[in-house]
Every structure is written in structure tokens, then in C-alpha cells.
Design a protein that fits this description.
The structure holds 2 protein chains of 2 kinds.
Chain A lengths: L2 H11 L2 E6 L6 H8 L5 E4 L3 H13 L3 E7 H6 L1 H11 L4 E5 L9 H16 L4 E4 L5 H15 L3 E5 L1 H4 L5
Parallel strand pairs in A: 1-2, 1-3, 3-4, 4-6, 5-6
Chain B lengths: L1 H5 L4 E3 L3 H10 L4 E3 L7 H9 L6 E6 H6 L2 H9 L4 E7 L2 E2 L5 E2 L8 H7 L4 E5 L2 H13 L4 E6 L13 H10 L2 H4 L15
Parallel strand pairs in B: 1-2, 1-3, 3-4, 4-8, 7-8
Antiparallel strand pairs in B: 5-6
Classes of the chains: A alpha/beta, B alpha/beta.
The structure holds thiamine diphosphate and magnesium ion.
Chain lengths: 168, 193
Amino acid sequence: MTWAETLLAALKRADISLIAYVPDISIYQATKLMEDDPYFHVVAATREEEAIGVAVGAYAVGRRSAVFMQSSGLGNCINAIASLCLPCRTPIPFFVNLRGELGEFNIAQVAMGRASKPILDVLGLPHYTLTTVDGLDTILNGALDLCYASRQPVALCMTPLLHRGSLA
Amino acid sequence: MVLENVGNRPIVSNLGPTTDELWHSGHRDRNFYTWGSMGLCSSIALGMALSTEEQVISLDGDGSLLMNLGAIATVGREKPKNLIVIVWDNEEWGQTGHQSSHTAMGTDLERVAQGCGISRTATVSSEEQLETALREALASPGPWFIVAKIEETDHLPYAPIEPEMTLYRFRATFPRASSNPLTEPWLQKPESS
Ligand SMILES: Cc1ncc(C[n+]2csc(CCOP(=O)(O)OP(=O)(O)O)c2C)c(N)n1
Ligand SMILES: [Mg+2]
């Protein structure tokens, strides 16, 4: 299985069927598969904090949800995490494509990419970095289990080592 | 008035006076109060509407919606039939000292919604008009977008909201959550009871 197929299988295992996202080249491999799969309802949001709102709404009526974004989008949704997800204790996994990593070509992506994990740390949110398809299911299943057991968001940080930064 | 008409349908309320008023006029398990995440009230309601068959009511504010106008574009894109957005438009950021908002200077939220492809819209300026619009919205497919022009009155005391409790209480009323022992063990009753 590719990393994206492994990821979809982990989402299904955890009963996650609503996905809210703002596009990014490297998460496209996964979001494209989800859009073609009737199991998922994929909501394109205009901004990442809106995606968090949609995901929280789904969870509030009993449907598990996840948010996909790139690291710049994490900057766009810090207050949504801090003032909604944390006080309400919503277990929502964030799939964050880390920019500013190996091979980054865009200076505008570097600072926010590098700030992402420290920001997650000060928010007290666990994060796991995905670098290879070997053992990926173990990390994903474990992180999703932790997310629901702790009823707090967990971040899964995707890197070019995993997806090569490419569309396919 | 809103509470009298909506029965047991879920309601999401905007931070500040809207949440306080909803609590004081009728606390119920199906009120999802927000106390932060300014701008996300209608986004939260959208996520609900896409995940339950029931009609969902968002009680938003002009200032908050202006912070996240994209929410209306996403409602227009998804077009959930069971979503009713009511914007309390007092033309100000009331909570923070009554500063005039953009709707006092010409921004027309109903036209914004129409421009986002939402065809069932209204702007109302009295309680009777609002009740008429709300009843129509409850009786026909949406999404609905109703701008309620209101005069600011004195604020009620803060509602004693505990967000974790709000979510827990709210969530437990939805069978999709409460009936799933695998994913929601804490909402199950012991077998002996
Ligand atoms: C991100 C963010 N920015 C600013 C504030 C401060 N704030 C709290 S309520 C509010 C006004 C909200 O206006 P509106 O939605 O029109 O509600 P009203 O108070 O008029 O009922 C503001 C600016 C905040 N809580 N969060
Ligand atoms: Mg206002």
C-alpha cells in the first residue's frame, strides 16, 4: 500500500468519515483518494480554522472527523485549537504537512513550518512525525487511539521523506 | 421566541451576549454554547448539519461572521438542506464596547450570502418578521440565511458555561454518539442498570 492508502485505512479503522481541509500539494494524494471514496465526506474550507469548526461540529453530533492542512494553516487555526478544541476536549486528529523541511524551495514557508512543532508543544498536544510507509499503520493507529482516549487533538506531521512533496 | 419555535433541534450560539442570552432564556442539553473561537459558530453548525439529519440552527453575530466570511461561502458550496443560520446583526461588536461593525457602514450580509449561492435568505427587523421567516425556514429545505437587525440592549450576566460539559451534554443527545459502545464507551449504561 502507498502511504496515502495506509492513511485511509487507518481513518476507516478509527471510524473517521468527515474530513475538513484546505488543499496542499502533498496532502493531495490522500485527499484525492478520499474524495473518490463514498465512505468519506470531504469538506473544502476557505481557511483552516473554519475546517476545525466543521470538524468540531461533526464530532459534537457523534461523527468522527479529521482536519488536513499544511503547516502554514496551523498558524491560521491556533485560536480555534486553543479556544474550542482544548476547552471542549475534542479528539480531532490534525494531519499537518510540514513545510520548511528537506528540499524546501519557498522561504515564506520556512518559519511557520519550523515553528509548528514548538507551537503544538506549548499547546500540550502530542505530535508524531511521519517519514516512511514502513510502520506507518502502527504510528497512525496508535496516535488515533491516543487521540480518542485522551479526548484531545493529536497532530500527525507529514514530511517530504514520506510523500516526496509530489502530487502523485 | 426562537426557543419556542425550534423544539428540540440543536442550536449553536456565538460567543458573548448570544451565548449568555441563550442560557438565560432556556438552558437545554441541545444548546452548544461557544465562549471563544470567534467566527466559528456557523462553521460548527455546518459540521453538525453535514453529520445529522436534524435541522441545525446557528445563532451567529455580525462581528463574528465578518471574521470568517468564508464560512458562508462553504455553506453555499455544501448547501446542507438542514442548516438555518440566523445572524444577530446589531451592527456592532457589542461585547467589546459597542464599536460599529462593517454592517453599520454598508456591508450587507444577506447579499454576501446570496453571492455565495444561498438562495433562501431574508433580512428582518422585528420579532414578528423573524418568527415568520424562522417558521418558513423550519418548514422548507435550506440552507437558510436570515439577518436579524436588532437594537442592542443591556447585556445579561455571563452564562456559567463549562465547555467540556457543554460538549458532553450536547453530544449525548445524539444517537450516533450515544449508541456506539465501541467509540463512546463513556456514554453507555452499565449492563445491570
Ligand atoms: C479572535 C478574537 N478576536 C477578538 C475577540 C474579542 N471579541 C469578543 S466578542 C467580540 C465581538 C463579537 O461581535 P458580534 O459577533 O457582532 O457579537 P455581539 O457582541 O455584537 O453580540 C470581540 C471582538 C475574541 N474573543 N476573539
Ligand atoms: Mg454584533
